[in-house]
Amino acid sequence: AGVAPSHRAANWLEFAVALMIIGLGVVAILRVLRKRADVHLHRHSHDGQSHVHIHFHEQRTEHAGVAPSHSHVISKLGFKPLLVGALHGLAGSAALTLLVLTQIQSVSLGLLYLTLFGVGSTLGMLLMSGVIGLPFALSGRRLTSINYGLQTLAGGLSIAFGLWYAYETAVINSLWRTIL
């Protein structure tokens, strides 16, 4: 008994989840802008200032310049999904898992519970991700304008939900008071 994350720690983890959801929405929208043939980010310099802005074309136009070689090792390892899952797990189900574990007397039963919980969570997330991702996968090759619209909508909804969730956590749950 007495094993549970503090209310303050739980609120901070929930706030981190809100920021992550906002970040994922921004990444989704930026990905759409990069993939579209007529819209992309364009970097240039003038007056000694280098900056990036959104650049539009009536049709596909290639800009000169080759991107420098860089590694994609982290993206191939699935670091982002691991980070997202870990943060969601710590913020959402950690307290419930700890609560159940305090009631289990046997170490082997506790490990079995954690294993079953982990496998069940993973399978549930896999199923839901597949169902939610199906429209994106089906529209990805032939219906690109619909796919871009779906990705933009998903990114926008993610940003909106993340902002609402951050407000809920920081203002309604008084997280900001722990800072002052």
Descriptive terms for the model:
180 residues; mainly alpha; two-stranded antiparallel sheet; 6 helices
| Helix/strand order, N-terminal first | HEEHHHHH
* Radius of gyration, taken over Cα atoms and rounded to an integer in Å: 21 Å
Provide the helix percentage. over 70%
As laid out across the biggest beta sheet, the strand order is 1-2
Biggest sheet details: 2 strands, antiparallel
Q: Which whole number gives the mean pLDDT?
A: 77
Question: Please, how many domains?
Answer: 1
Could you tell me how far the N terminus lies from the C terminus, measured between alpha carbons in angstroms?
31 Å
Strand residue percentage: 5-15%
Please mark out the parts with pLDDT under 50 across 5 or more consecutive residues, or reply none: none
Separate helix tally: 6
Structural class: mainly alpha
Shape: extended
Counting DSSP E segments of at least 2 residues, the number of strands comes to 2
Brief digest:
The protein is mainly alpha-helical and 180 residues long. It has helices at 7-35, 73-77, 79-103, 107-139, 144-172, 175-179; strands spanning 39-46, 49-56. It has one domain (7-61, 75-179).
Describe the structure.
The protein has 180 residues and is mostly helical. It has helices spanning 7-35, 73-77, 79-103, 107-139, 144-172, 175-179, and strands at residues 39-46, 49-56. It has a two-stranded antiparallel ribbon with strand order 1-2. Strand 1 (39-46) and strand 2 (49-56) form a beta hairpin.
